[in-house]
Design a protein that fits this description.
Elements (H helix, E strand, L loop, with lengths): L1 E2 L9 H16 L5 E6 L19 H19 L4 E6 L3 E2 L1 H7 L3 E5 L6 E2 L11 H11 L1 H10 L5 H7 L4 E3 L4 H7 L9 H16 L1 H12 L2 H18 L1
Parallel strand pairs: 1-2, 2-3, 3-5, 4-6, 5-7
Helix pairs in contact: 1-2, 2-9, 4-5
The structure holds ligand LGD76KDA.
The site of ligand LGD76KDA has 28 residues, from helix 9 and helix 10.
């Protein structure tokens, strides 16, 4: 599955819906045992959630958006396929979350790229299931430090903390993700045994999580932080 939503593969409601439909189709295809997620765009795996979906939108629309984010996570984290993230560019926040849902992460060894949960930098708090996914990937203490600082990691740092499993030359990410994943076997009961408690936690709190998100994101102070962050993103470009 090659992500293609220019300019930066931000996860809008529409794009999330497309991703969910694609994953569902592959999941039902009995001939398909594995899924490699990568990006068709240069330099960016995914810029994470589309910030415009969280800025100036109605509570109803925000709720619909959040349900789609949850659905993407539930489908990928609970997938019965072998899943590999071929991270061929930067992958902040929701992009990092998406790659952490996979069984194995291969990243391009380019120091200009970064990956991590940077929500704190936007003045927002990473939801509990983002935190749980990271804890399951890199452990409690690293997650605590990482979330408090909104830390982004270059590929070498990400490998060191176990956020990615393998670094490869940039032009070989696709090759390695198709051929070099001996470490990942066909998902069996162990995958669901390890992930089920985390999945059940969100499933049982899904509606409350949507309500929390909507009331948090529509607060004036949070809208102001997001607006300032958007300005910063645009200025940084000039
Ligand atoms: C205590 C109470 C608890 C209650 C709990 C409730 C829970 C609520 C919590 C809410 C949590 C919400 C979770 C959010 C997770 C996210 O994913 S937020 C998104 C975070 N993403 C980012 O910060 C990425 C920002 N982007 C970048 O760093 C860079 O763009 C890039 C490294 C990805 C790519 O760089 P480059 O190639 O140089 O492109 P740019 O010129 O920067 O960007 C091009 C273009 O795209 C726009 N853009 C970039 N990212 C996004 C995005 N995520 N969404 C929308 N748009 C984006 C950027 O502004 C440029 O636009 P223009 O061309 O200037 O118009």
């Amino acid at each position: 599955m090659s992500l293609q939503n220019p300019p930066v593969n931000s996860l809008s409601l529409e794009f999330l819906t497309d991703i969910c439909i694609s994953v569902e189709k592959l999941e039902m295809d009995k001939t398909c045992r594995g899924l490699i997620i990568t990006s068709s765009l240069p330099k960016v795996f995914s810029a994470g959630l589309d910030i415009m979906e969280m800025y100036g939108k109605s509570p109803e629309r925000c709720g619909e958006f959040w349900r789609a984010v949850q659905e993407m996570w539930l489908k990928l984290y609970g997938s019965n396929m072998v899943t590999i993230a071929a991270i061929n560019g930067s992958s902040p926040a929701g992009g990092c979350l998406m790659s952490m849902t996979c069984d194995y992460r291969i990243m391009a060894d380019n120091p200009r790229y970064s990956i991590g949960l940077n929500e704190t930098q936007l003045g927002i708090v990473a939801p509990f299931w983002f935190k749980d996914t990271m804890t399951n990937t890199v452990g409690h203490r690293t997650t605590e430090l990482s979330l408090q600082l909104g830390q982004m990691y270059n590929p070498a740092e990400a490998l060191k903390i176990g956020l990615v499993d393998q670094l490869v030359p940039e032009d070989q990410v696709s090759h390695y993700s198709h051929t070099n994943h001996d470490q990942v076997t066909t998902p069996d009961r162990s995958k669901s045994m390890m992930r089920k408690p985390t999945i059940d936690k969100l499933t049982s709190k899904r509606e409350a999580d949507i309500q929390n998100f909507v009331s948090f994101i529509t607060k004036d102070s949070i809208q102001k932080s997001i607006g300032m962050y958007l300005e910063m993103l645009k200025k940084r470009k000039r």
